[in-house]
UniProtKB/TrEMBL annotation:
<protein>
    <recommendedName>
        <fullName>Mitochondrial inner membrane protease ATP23</fullName>
        <ecNumber>3.4.24.-</ecNumber>
    </recommendedName>
</protein>
<dbReference type="InterPro" id="IPR019165">
    <property type="entry name" value="Peptidase_M76_ATP23"/>
</dbReference>
<dbReference type="GO" id="GO:0005739">
    <property type="term" value="C:mitochondrion"/>
</dbReference>
<dbReference type="GO" id="GO:0046872">
    <property type="term" value="F:metal ion binding"/>
</dbReference>
<dbReference type="GO" id="GO:0033615">
    <property type="term" value="P:mitochondrial proton-transporting ATP synthase complex assembly"/>
</dbReference>
<dbReference type="GO" id="GO:0004222">
    <property type="term" value="F:metalloendopeptidase activity"/>
</dbReference>
<keyword id="KW-0482">Metalloprotease</keyword>
<dbReference type="GO" id="GO:0034982">
    <property type="term" value="P:mitochondrial protein processing"/>
</dbReference>
<keyword id="KW-0645">Protease</keyword>
<dbReference type="Pfam" id="PF09768">
    <property type="entry name" value="Peptidase_M76"/>
</dbReference>
<keyword id="KW-0479">Metal-binding</keyword>
<comment type="similarity">
    <text>Belongs to the peptidase M76 family.</text>
</comment>
<keyword id="KW-0378">Hydrolase</keyword>
Length: 204
């Protein structure tokens, strides 16, 4: 029996996982696809977006203007990253520029993780959790001002608590992670991933 130890690069029938983020202002009407597309273009002027695109490029992944698309989403999500394809922003679930900026920044961190790691498996709960921890922490999603707008008033320890809550929320969208598996995976990788601030020197 001559079986090779080398991994085969066949197209694997993995379930498509889309890293999606909870929408924050579900009650508002949202924007049209055209308006949202303009907001995406505006987000490209933000230093943090420029910085992430630059580092994606340096890591060998080019993020062109078409990489990020506005679409209408059925699910209550603000946006998502589709591995190997690009980023979507849900026009019908965003209302202000800051929300679009946050989605773009958050998803660019997923794209960066995808780009720098050759063996990242989004179907693996721990891998997915790690990227959500980083994206939640580094994007400023959990800045206290944004949390106050969401109606969360607690200030002490709020940042980590907010990241945890949103990581679990995102992992719900992964068909491979049960609620218990998601929590275990998050706890197991928390310290390493929360402290991994690349490509930033420290959490912005
Ligand atoms: Zn995410």
């Amino acid at each position: 029996m001559g079986h090779s130890t080398k991994p085969t690069h066949k197209k694997c029938p993995v379930k498509r996982v889309i890293m999606a983020e909870e929408a924050t202002s579900g009650t508002n009407r949202g924007k049209t696809v055209e308006q949202c597309q303009e907001m995406i273009q505006r987000s490209f002027r933000i230093p943090m977006v420029k910085f992430l695109r630059e580092h994606l490029y340096k890591s060998g992944c080019y993020v062109g203007n078409n990489f990020i698309k506005a679409v209408n989403c059925e699910k209550e999500v603000a946006g998502g990253y589709v591995p190997g394809k690009g980023i979507i922003v849900c026009s019908n679930h965003v209302n202000i520029q800051d929300e679009v900026n946050q989605v773009v920044i958050h998803e660019l961190i997923h794209a960066y993780d995808d780009c720098r790691a050759t063996n990242l498996d989004w179907t693996n709960c721990a891998h997915h959790a790690c990227s959500e921890i980083r994206a939640g922490h580094l994007s400023g999603d959990c800045h206290y001002k944004r949390e106050l707008l969401r109606g969360f008033m607690k200030l002490r320890g709020q940042e980590q608590e907010c990241v945890r809550r949103r990581v679990l929320e995102s992992l719900k969208g992964n068909p491979n992670c049960s609620e218990a598996a998601a929590k275990d995976a998050m706890d197991a990788v928390w310290d390493v991933c929360y402290n991994d601030t690349k490509p930033f020197d420290r959490a912005p």
